[in-house]
Amino acid sequence: MQNSTKNLSRLSDKTKLLLKFNYTSSFMSLAFGIACLYLLQAKNIVPYAFFTYAILNFLNIAAFKRHRSLIVMAVATSLLSVISTIIIVLYSGGINSPFLFVLALIVLGGYVVTRLFGKIYLYTILSIVCIIYTLGKFDSAFFSFTNEIPQPSRDIFALLCALFSVYLLGVIFGKNLLKTHHRLYKSKTEIEAQILEKEILLKEIHHRVKNNLQTVSSLLSMQGRNTTNEQIKKIIKSSQNRVISMAIIHEMLYTNDNLSKIEFKPYVQELTAFLIKSVVGSSPKIDLHIDIPDIKLGIDTAIPLGLLINEAITNSLKYGFEDKNEGLIEIGLQKEAEGENNYILTISDNGIGFSEVTHSKTTKSLGLKLIHNLARQLQGSVLKDDSKIGTTYIIKFKDIQQTLSPVA
After folding, report:
1. Fewer CB within 10 A of the terminal residue: the chain, N end or C end?
2. 212, 218, 223, 225: CA torsion to nearest 10
3. DSSP string, 141-166
4. CA separation for the pair 267, 244 (Å, rounded)
5. 103, 130 Cβ separation under 8 angstroms
6. Mean pLDDT across the stretch 389-399?
């Protein structure tokens, strides 16, 4: 609905501009023709070309009142303008005629209607100028065009041509360009204000989501302290860590300028530091190597990927090092050569690993099931590399936000 209104407004502006050009150029052509007859004493083809253009253009305007087709009126106006201008130029000095500049105004008028018209007029007028120049060079009895403007009146004719061109350029096109510039500036200012308002709103939303997730984490922590069942405590702690992994993302979003993507390496560093402290305590002997390039991932990718990393790291910390609280965890990320939005994430530890027969469909481990389900959510897959010591996951995935975003 809004686009339709804008299109109608643009069409109305173009119609008003073309009508204004037609009325102004027609009245000026009448005045120019009279000046040629009585002031310049040019009484052959040139003044009658002005009169013919004016009369036919008035008829063109009258026809538009009935058919209401802007394209038809624009084509008729351009044809009348080109033909009349060529005739006047040929009989007022050819390539040296001061009226030649009017052809440039016709090109400008074409661009006002549509870009296609402008291009057509541009190359047509360039061809016409070259032809006029060629005719002047190879003047013969067949192509003989005399300058009808008397020698004493040629300076005045040049003055009138300059006034004619400059007036049309300034009053018709100049005012329209200035008006369009003001509209664009006003629209730009309004759009910038709307974007700023939406950015502030989005930051506030991310801030509130983070606060709400932290509240959920606190509630889970309180619930965990109210039970003596160690298994339930572990389940609640795992759920709490999953909530925190999402809260970190929303915190990074509202503190950064980009509200749709996050720097993935700092996020992984903060998340893994939190997990190590949460699972094995404040004095861990876990070496952590993170090899992630400086890339930004969309929130639709970062959240499931963060949850996936949370599950893999938590499993390594809980079960991979036999309660020794020491070992090595490596996380690496690289782009896949096959596609721009395809990535390979590697998560490995040098712990004891787990059984090769364990499968995501048969295991009772919620963490393993989540790893595979989250990978599928990212249009990817999980491969466990059994050739290495410990546990190694190779996760292929896509940046969902980039994949689904519309092409400009």
Report:
1. C
2. 180
3. SSS-----S-GGGHHHHHHHHHHHHH
4. 12
5. no
6. 88
